[in-house]
């Protein structure tokens, strides 16, 4: 498939397959178009919110299926620039359609729907300070760095799995950062299509906005917010994972020019997904990045945190022939070079599989957090 053709086609192309559609997306019936949605400030929360198996936090509301599909925003991206905090991020309208919980009765947004932001952590006891790893954990982290050659696996040319790569302390900090960003402007929402089909996950983009319907467009439906930037420590982790993968390829394949097999990259986009335990994602290719990035095979670096996932991958969109690998909390999966455009997806999330040590330190919901870093 040529690039121009690739770029035009949907990222989650599974959705185009009618027979798979019911399996991999949630078909909701949108009510009438209600216009831009307002993100509810936390102190103004109304009753109601997300309805799924794991949403213990909120009651469902009759209006929670309503999604507006406006397309009149002009979005300034933060592509390639330094991180922006949620307080000074530009947001023309305070918005996003996570979960509609009511209507504004007064002020500038009078009559507009109010939405409940999606919190990847459950309410209740919260850890307020940044987690400091114990000495043992610090040592484990060091040990991990040393034995990367044992814990790393080359799944196919350009595709590397680094098992238990992200230390518990770093996982805790990633969850906290994603929770904070996810509750702010441009935070988590459930992406979908105009016809009401929805992806079975919550999504937030860092660096540059991507949406299944609009792709990497300046003008996004429903969204008027500049995306948060990629936190610097996230980028450093990605860089280190790529360096360690290069060392692994050199060691195992004896390759002299590892960049030919797995090119390096500097991430300027991160798509953050949160899957509750009934979440999933159909087989698709990531091919909306620039033709240059795809031609060079600049890798996608994926970090998994929380419950484990059955991850599928293969050369074709063929569920029967796809290979399966378990992605556990702390694993890093990289696919670049010849594997850059493999089909991949999440078959299922395995309930109660998150590490107890993580759950002791953060109140992450049952489910899985996944971050995929790319260079546009
Ligand atoms: O959750 C995952 O492991 C994969 C996510 C993914 O493929 C994507 O966001 O494009
Ligand atoms: Fe993907």
Automatic annotation (TrEMBL):
<dbReference type="Pfam" id="PF13532">
    <property type="entry name" value="2OG-FeII_Oxy_2"/>
</dbReference>
<keyword id="KW-0223">Dioxygenase</keyword>
<feature type="binding site">
    <location>
        <position position="286"/>
    </location>
    <ligand>
        <name>Fe cation</name>
    </ligand>
</feature>
<dbReference type="InterPro" id="IPR005123">
    <property type="entry name" value="Oxoglu/Fe-dep_dioxygenase_dom"/>
</dbReference>
<dbReference type="InterPro" id="IPR037151">
    <property type="entry name" value="AlkB-like_sf"/>
</dbReference>
<dbReference type="GO" id="GO:0035516">
    <property type="term" value="F:broad specificity oxidative DNA demethylase activity"/>
</dbReference>
<comment type="similarity">
    <text>Belongs to the alkB family.</text>
</comment>
<dbReference type="GO" id="GO:0008198">
    <property type="term" value="F:ferrous iron binding"/>
</dbReference>
<keyword id="KW-0479">Metal-binding</keyword>
<dbReference type="GO" id="GO:0035515">
    <property type="term" value="F:oxidative RNA demethylase activity"/>
</dbReference>
<feature type="binding site">
    <location>
        <position position="284"/>
    </location>
    <ligand>
        <name>Fe cation</name>
    </ligand>
</feature>
<dbReference type="InterPro" id="IPR004574">
    <property type="entry name" value="Alkb"/>
</dbReference>
<keyword id="KW-0560">Oxidoreductase</keyword>
<feature type="domain" description="Fe2OG dioxygenase">
    <location>
        <begin position="266"/>
        <end position="376"/>
    </location>
</feature>
<feature type="compositionally biased region" description="Polar residues">
    <location>
        <begin position="57"/>
        <end position="88"/>
    </location>
</feature>
<feature type="binding site">
    <location>
        <position position="344"/>
    </location>
    <ligand>
        <name>Fe cation</name>
    </ligand>
</feature>
<dbReference type="GO" id="GO:0035513">
    <property type="term" value="P:oxidative RNA demethylation"/>
</dbReference>
<feature type="region of interest" description="Disordered">
    <location>
        <begin position="1"/>
        <end position="93"/>
    </location>
</feature>
<keyword id="KW-0408">Iron</keyword>
<dbReference type="GO" id="GO:0005737">
    <property type="term" value="C:cytoplasm"/>
</dbReference>
<dbReference type="InterPro" id="IPR027450">
    <property type="entry name" value="AlkB-like"/>
</dbReference>
<feature type="compositionally biased region" description="Basic and acidic residues">
    <location>
        <begin position="16"/>
        <end position="32"/>
    </location>
</feature>
<protein>
    <recommendedName>
        <fullName>Fe2OG dioxygenase domain-containing protein</fullName>
    </recommendedName>
</protein>
